[in-house]
Automatic annotation (TrEMBL):
Entry GO terms, CC: lytic vacuole membrane
Stretch forming the signal peptide: none
GO molecular function, one term: basic amino acid transmembrane transporter activity
Membrane topology: Multi-pass membrane protein
Main location: membrane
Name this protein carries in UniProt: Vacuolar membrane PQ loop repeat protein-like protein
Keyword flag Heme: no
The organism of origin for this protein: Melanomma pulvis-pyrius CBS 109.77
Segments for region (Disordered): 111-151
Protein localization: Membrane
A Pfam family assignment: PQ-loop
Length: 310
C-alpha cells in the first residue's frame, strides 16, 4: 500500500470523479483481457465444447467486428481500437476450439456407434441364453442393489457437491478480486507515469461521430444484447450449465459494469451521453442477461450433481 500511495502522490492533480472513471475503465480493460481464458480452460479440461452455444459465440463475434469497424470509423482512442482487435482474435480462438472439439467428439461417437453395432447381436444372444432365473428376477435384484447403493452414498454426494460448490465460488471470487487489483494498480501506474490522462470534456461540436459509425455502434449493441439469448435457451432446454465457466460470465458482468461506470463517472452531459449511448446499451443491457445465466447456474448447477446422483 505505501508504494501505491507513493505512485498516486507523484501523479498530476485530478478530481475524484476523473480518478474513479479511470479506475473503472482500467478494471474493465483487465476484465476483457482475461474474459475468455476461463472458458478456454473449461473446454480443455472437459475435452468438449457442448456446453457453450455456437450461436452465442457467432453473434458475439459479429458484435465485436461491428464494434471494431465503428471504433475505426469514429476514430476512437487507440486503447478502444486495440481492445476491439484483441477481442476479434480471441473470439476466433474460442470458436476454433469449439469447432475442433465438436468435430473430434462427433468422430469418436460415430466410431463408437459402429463398434457397438458390430458386437450387439452376439452379446444379445449370449445374454438371453444365460438368463436361467425367474423372469425379471435379475433386473429386480440389480435395481434394488442400485437403489441401496444410491441411498447409502447420497449423503456423501451432497456433502462433496456442497464443498465443491463452495470452493468454486471462493476461487471465482478471489479471481474477481485479483482482476480488480490488477486493473486498479495498472491505472495508478499509468497515471503516475503520464501514460493515462483525463480526457477533457468538449462542447460536443468537435467530437461528433459519423452517422455510419453510430449505426455500427448500435448494430454492435444489438448483437451483444442478442448473443446470450441462444445460450440462455440452451441452458433452459438442457436444464444444465455443464461445460460453462461461471468465471467467464462473472468477468463479463464485471467488465460491463465497470465499463458503464467509467463512462458515466467521466461525464453525464447530454452530448457525451448520447455519443456513448450505443456502447452503454451494449454493456449495461447485457448485465441483465448475465444475471439470468447466474440464476440458471444456481438452479441447474453444472451437471456434476445430477451425474453423481443418477
Amino acid at each position: 500500500m505505501p508504494m501505491f500511495a507513493a505512485l498516486l502522490a507523484h501523479g498530476p492533480p485530478l478530481t475524484t470523479q476523473e480518478a474513479l472513471s479511470g479506475v473503472f475503465g482500467s478494471i474493465s480493460l483487465a476484465s476483457w483481457i482475461f474474459l475468455l481464458v476461463p472458458q478456454l480452460a473449461e473446454n480443455y479440461k472437459q475435452g468438449s465444447a457442448e456446453g457453450i452455444s455456437l450461436a452465442f459465440l457467432t453473434v458475439w463475434f459479429i458484435g465485436d467486428i461491428t464494434n471494431l469497424a465503428g471504433s475505426l470509423w469514429a476514430g476512437l482512442v487507440p486503447t478502444v481500437t486495440a481492445l476491439a482487435i484483441y477481442f476479434c482474435f480471441a473470439d476466433l480462438i474460442l470458436i476454433s476450439q469449439c469447432l475442433y472439439y465438436n468435430f473430434k467428439n462427433t468422430q469418436k461417437s460415430r466410431r463408437r456407434s459402429t463398434r457397438q453395432d458390430g458386437v450387439e447381436q452376439p452379446l444379445l444372444g449370449r445374454r438371453d441364453s444365460s438368463n436361467l432365473g425367474l423372469p425379471g428376477s435379475h433386473r429386480r435384484k440389480s435395481s434394488a442393489a442400485s437403489r441401496r447403493r444410491r441411498a447409502s452414498s447420497l449423503p456423501s454426494i451432497v456433502e462433496d457437491s456442497s464443498e465443491f460448490e463452495m470452493k468454486a465460488w471462493m476461487k471465482n471470487s478471489l479471481s474477481i478480486i485479483g482482476v480488480c487489483i490488477v486493473g486498479t494498480a495498472g491505472w495508478a501506474i499509468a497515471w503516475s507515469t503520464g501514460v493515462w490522462q483525463p480526457t477533457p470534456l468538449n462542447d460536443g461540436s468537435d467530437t461528433e461521430i459519423a452517422l455510419g459509425a453510430q449505426i455500427l455502434g448500435y448494430v454492435s449493441a444489438v448483437c451483444y444484447l442478442g448473443a446470450r439469448i441462444p445460450q440462455i435457451i440452451k441452458n433452459q432446454r438442457d436444464r444444465s450449465c455443464e461445460g460453462l465457466s461461471l468465471l467467464f460470465f462473472m468477468l463479463s458482468l464485471l467488465g460491463n459494469a465497470t465499463y458503464g461506470a467509467g463512462i458515466l463517472f467521466h461525464s453525464t452531459e447530454k452530448e457525451y451521453f448520447m455519443t456513448n449511448l450505443p456502447w452503454l446499451i451494449g454493456s449495461l443491457g447485457t448485465m441483465v442477461e448475465d444475471a439470468t445465466i447466474f440464476i440458471q447456474f444456481r438452479i441447474f448447477g453444472n451437471g456434476e450433481q445430477t451425474t453423481a446422483v443418477v
